Amino acid sequence: MLELRPIVVDESMTVLGGNMRLKAIEEVGLKEITIVKVEGLSEEQKKEFVIKDNLGYGEWDWDILANEWNVEQLSDWGLDVINIESNINLDDFFEKKPEDENTSAFKIVLEFTEEDYNEALDLFKQHSGTREAIVLSLLRG
């Protein structure tokens, strides 16, 4: 796999691509690997590479992206961004009212396309615990 998706570093040996592969390499105890060292990239080009390298499998810290990155650039680079610069009103997504008058439990109802529903179902099957615990786990990433 490392031949197909190598660790990519810049002149200062900062990992631009493959930080999770590097973590796995360290965990299994490999002592030598081949890396690709890129030189001459601007800071902007390095940022673009990092985003593009993680499009398919990356985990995102949306708060950092919203506060430290240009949303238009992220979108241009292929990251599916829901206008993270705007203040999202959660009331548009959730109704905060108890299921009934005799409980403090709340209900969240989500609507999915069939494709997204099937993907969500597959994610649920990969986790164990109560429905609530699974949802919180998935939301926390």
Key traits:
single chain, 141 residues, mainly alpha, three-stranded mixed sheet, 6 helices, 40% helix
Strand order of the largest sheet: 2-1-3
H/E topology pattern: EEHEHHHHH
Radius of gyration from the CA trace? 20 Å
Number of helices: 6
Q: Could you list the spans in which at least 5 consecutive residues all have pLDDT below 50?
A: none
Helix percent reads 25-40%
Per DSSP E runs of 2 or more residues, the count of β-strands stands at 3
**Structural class by sheet pairing and helices:** mainly alpha
Q: What coarse outline follows from CA principal-axis ratios?
A: elongated
Q: Please describe the biggest sheet, giving its number of strands, its sense, and whether it closes into a barrel.
A: 3 strands, mixed
* Global mean pLDDT: 79
The total domain count is: 2
What would you note in describing this structure?
The mean pLDDT is 79. By secondary structure, this protein is mainly alpha-helical. The chain folds into two domains: 7-76, no CATH class; 90-140, no CATH class. A three-stranded mixed sheet has the order 2-1-3. The protein has helices at residues 19-28, 43-53, 62-68, 71-76, 114-125, 131-140; strands at residues 7-9, 15-17, 35-37.
What would you say about this model in short?
With 141 residues, the chain is mainly α. The chain has 6 helices and 3 strands. The model has no long low-confidence stretch (mean pLDDT 79).
SSE diagram, text form:
Layout: E1 7-9, E2 15-17, H1 19-28, E3 35-37, H2 43-53, H3 62-68, H4 71-76, H5 114-125, H6 131-140
Parallel strand pairs: 1-3
Antiparallel strand pairs: 1-2
